[in-house]
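hiii, so i know i said id send this last week but things got crazy w the move. better late than never?? heres the sequnce for the chain we talked about at the cafe, plus the structure i predicted for it. fair warning i was half asleep when i ran it
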Amino acid sequence: MSGVYARQTRRIAVLAATARTYLSQLTVAAEGSSSGYSRDLFPHWITQSGACNTREVVLKRDGSNVQQDSSCAAVSGSWYSEYDGATWTLASDLDIDHVVALSEAWKSGANSWTTSKRQQFANDLTRPQLIAVTDNVNQSKGDQDPAEWLPSRTSYRCTYARMWVHVKYYWGLKVDSAEKSALQGILNGC
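okay and structure toks below
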């Protein structure tokens, strides 16, 4: 593996120096409108293999000792939520967070994408876009960007910023000036 990547909790995030370079190359623009947005425009939790959908793949990848039933549902295991440091033993206590929320992506350029491209984004298992986290923490995050919300675990913020920038860069999404400033502040401390 090249020096561009560092393994972090089973997801690959670019190194801080690479994230700073990517961030400098992102288009800065005012956040777009939510007009026309619907989660349904981002078909997610599609079938990945057999009976396993994207959610179940992430639960298996992000958990420890995960056992799945014949329909691929996680029936046991444990999961550590990087955002808040909580450990869970029931999959129902977890959400799969889109690091760059679907609504945020819409307002950052995905509104012009095809449904097929939005589906690829919403189910991206290659970039660090999907992570199993405590459900109510994910719900409190909503569609906020790093200028508005960061994980409560301060030791994870550098990784989170690297993940965020990697996703925005790969998918060609824009950042607003407050978002860019917040990300620069975090990445400069990494």
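btw Residues 145 and 179 are 6 Å apart (CA to CA). thought thatd interest u
miss u guys!!
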